[in-house]
Amino acid sequence: MYATRLDGVTDLPAFAEKRHNRGGIVPEKLTDLIAELALANRILAHEGVLDAFGHVSMRHPSDPGRYLLSRSRSPLLIEPGDILEYTLDSTPVRPPKVHLYAERVIHGCIYQARSDVMAVCHHHAPAVMPFCIAGKPIVPVFHLGAAMGAEAPFWDQHDEFGDTNLLVVKPEEGQSLARTLGRHSAVLMNRHGATVVGGGLKELVARSIFMCQNAEYQMRALSLGAATPLHPGETRLAGVISAMPTVVTRTWEYWSLRLAAAGAMPPRRGVKKSARGRGKARNRR
Ligand SMILES: [Zn+2]
């Protein structure tokens, strides 16, 4: 059926974009978006980007001065009811009784610095850690790896802040990280992990997963003797693919199905009133 719909279509990206905007692929209700954020947490955990730590957020769809992020909880366990609303200085809109992520300033500071960023993921994925420890760059080595862009700069917390526990908890630390990120799609954090940004939640999920796959392939290729990066033009052209609505939707369905097969889909109910913008937050514990 889908092939039939594409008959005669010569400009696939434009066609896909039109469908994307018109076809209800982007949920309109905040509750649906919050459910998607819970699902994104679980997908990224199930695909090995997040583990017990790491987090993913999205900018509030109707208030760019706020963002949505879970309470402190392992991403594979997150439910819609865990999602809270924060101002861009990373203060919860309604103070909850639950623990919050210590590194949430990463999200707030990037949203402050980058008006184009709609979603942020911070992680310590095993695939990227060797590069973060060795200080060796991750470069796109296959077409979907181009989702990360031509390069991801390094940010060494010690350079500016000396000895710390390496957690990014102070606004000035988050601001420094955001400065190094600049206009890039990802920043590598020496001896810590990576932070990835996207123009949308599903794009961010795809970029985060593809970047980890790319790092694994780069490492394996190095063991064979060489990891040849894409040519700059290839990176530019291939980088467009991963953001196409058709690709973003297809990968999202695939990763969702894998999560469902593992029996780890989030429940649909339980969105906190604080994140729906009315009433007081109900804190379970
Ligand atoms: Zn971290």
Note down, in words, how this protein is organized.
- With 285 residues, this protein is α+β, with helices and mostly antiparallel strands.
- The protein is 41% helix and 11% strand.
- It has a seven-stranded mixed sheet, sandwiched between helices.
- Strand 1 and strand 2 form a beta hairpin.
- Helix 3 packs parallel to helix 8.
- The N and C termini lie far apart (48 Å).
- The model is unreliable at 1-26 and 277-285 (pLDDT under 50).
- Residues 103, 122, 124, 192-193 line the site of zinc ion.
- Zinc ion is lined by residues 103, 122, 124, 192-193.
Shape: globular
Distance between the termini: 48 Å
Which ions, cofactors or small ligands are bound in this entry?
Answer: zinc ion
Strand percentage: 5-15%
Residue-averaged pLDDT, rounded?
Answer: 88
For the biggest sheet, the summary is:
7 strands, mixed
Radius of gyration equals 19 Å
Estimate the helix proportion, in percent: 40-55%
By DSSP, the count of extended strands is: 7
List keywords for this structure.
single chain, 285 residues, seven-stranded mixed β-sheet, globular, disordered C terminus, binds zinc ion
List the helices and strands and how they pair.
Layout: H1 2-5, H2 12-22, H3 30-46, E1 55-59, E2 66-70, E3 83-87, H4 105-113, E4 119-123, H5 129-134, E5 154-155, H6 157-161, H7 171-181, E6 186-189, E7 193-198, H8 201-223, H9 232-241, H10 245-261, H11 273-276
Parallel strand pairs: 5-6
Antiparallel strand pairs: 1-2, 1-4, 2-3, 4-7, 6-7
Helix pairs in contact: 3-8, 3-10, 4-7, 8-10
Bound molecules: zinc ion (ZN).
Zinc ion (ZN) binds at residues 103, 122, 124, 192-193.
